[in-house]
Amino acid sequence: MTDKPPVSVVTPVYNGEAHLRACVESVLAQTYTNWDYTIADNRSTDRTLEIAREYAARDPRIRVWTAPAHVPVQQSYNNAVRQTSPASKYCKVVAADDWLAPECLEKMVALAEQQPTVAIVGAYGLTGTRVEWQGLPYSATVVNGRALCRERLLGGPYIFGTATSLLYRADIVRSRQSFFNDENLHCDSEACLEFLEKHDFGFVHQVLTFLGVRDDSLTSMSQRLQTYLPWVLLELVKYGPLYLTPEEMDSRIRQHLRQYYRYLGEQVFARRDRAFWNYHREELAELGYPLSFSRLAANSASHLLEFANPKHLIKGVVFPFRRLLATASR
Fold first, then answer.
1. Is residue 65 within 8 Å of 83, Cβ to Cβ?
2. Sign of the alpha-carbon torsion through 30, 31, 32, 36
3. How far is residue 39's CA from residue 263's CA, in Å, rounded to a whole number?
C-alpha cells in the first residue's frame, strides 16, 4: 500500500475513555494501511491519555498530542487537524465516540483519486439503525460543489454529515491556521459551504462511518437545544450572498424564520429552562434578527389553538408566556 497516497487520521478527544478503544480499533482495522494517526487529547481528566499512549506504544503509526490547555470543542478539532502530516494528501477526522467501517479510507481515497477536482468526500453514516446523509441519487458520486451548496441553502437535503463522515483533501486543511470556524458549533458544515465554492464533492454510496451519541455528547446537546435552527440561519446570512440571488436569499430567510418561530412557539409550553431561551435569544440577536416576543406569542397562541381546547387559550398562553418574559428579563 506504500504506493497509495498517505492519509492523516486525527481524533480530537476529551474524557473519552469509555469509547476511545473502539474508535482506535476501527482505524487499526482499515483495509487501507498507508496512514498515520494522531490522537489529540484536550487535557482529559480520566484514563483517555493512558489508553492513547498504550496504542501509540504498540503501533509506530500512532502518536499522541496533548493540548497545552483545555479548549472548547471547535478549537479542539482545529488542534487535531493541525496534526495532519506535511506529507499527507488527505485528512480523515474521526471523533472519539465514533468509528469507521473497515473500508472507509479505501473507498473514500479511491473516489478522491479518480477525480482531482474533489476536495471533500462524504458517505452514508449510521446512527443506531438510522442511515444518515441521504439525498443524492445513486449515480451521483461526484457533484459540482457550488451547485450542491446552492441546493443546500435552498432547503435541499443535508448530505455533508459530520466531520467524522468526511474525508478532506489535506491542502485545504493546511490552507489556513484554523480550518474550522472556532465560533460555530456546526463548523464542519460551514467548512463545506466555504471550500466547495470552487471544488467538487465526492460521495460514496455506502455506510462507512458510525455515529455514537451519548447523553453528554455534543450531538445530544445540539438536539436538546435545537442548534440546527440558528445554524441554518447563520449559513443563509453568511453564505446566501455567495450562492443565492437576493430574492432567493430573502425568501429562504423568511421561510426559515417562520419555521423557527413555530418551533419556539411550541416550546413555550415545554417548560424550557433559562439556558434554552438565552441561547436562542442570543443567537438570533447575533445574526441580526432579535427575538420578537410578539411573534413568539402569536405562534404560541397558534400552537395552542391547533392542539388544545380554545377555552383554555388565556390560561395556556398568558401564564407560560409570563414565565418566559420573567426568565428573559433576568
1. yes
2. positive
3. 39
CA distance 273 to 293: 17
31 in Cβ contact with 114 (< 8 Å): no
pLDDT band at 3 (very low <50, low <70, confident <90, very high): confident
The CATH number given to 7-204 is 3.90.550.10
Q: Which residue has the cell 458520486?
A: 141
Q: How many CB atoms lie within 10 A of CB 66?
A: 14
Decide if pLDDT at 48 tops 90. Answer: yes
Q: Which amino acid is at 310?
A: P
Q: What was the pLDDT predicted at 177?
A: 93
DSSP letter, residue 217: S
Delimit the domains of the chain by residue range.
7-204, 226-329
Among residues 37, 33, 43, 39, which one has the least CA distance to residue 19?
A: 39
**DSSP-derived secondary structure for 108-177:** HHHHHHH-TTEEEEEEEEEETTEEES--S-TT-SEE-HHHHHHHHHTT-------GGG-EEEHHHHTTSS
Q: What local confidence, expressed as pLDDT, does residue 320 receive? A: 56
Tell me which residue of 321, 271, 276, 273 sits closest to 296, measured CA to CA: 321
Distance of CA 322 to the CA centre of its chain: 35
Higher pLDDT, 93 or 226: 93
Tell me: the pLDDT tens digits for 142-166?
A: 999 999 999 999 999 999 999 999 9
From residue 15, how far is each of 53, 116, 213 by CA, in Å?
Answer: 14, 38, 15
Q: In the beta sheet, which residues pair with residue 35?
A: 7
Pair 105, 32: CB distance under 8 Å: yes
Tell me the β-bridge partners of 93: 10
Those residues whose C-beta lies under 8 Å from the C-beta of residue 284, and which sit 6 or more positions away, are: 230, 233, 290, 291
Neighbours of 326 (CB within 10 A): 10
Q: Could you give the 3-state DSSP secondary structure of residue 260?
A: helix
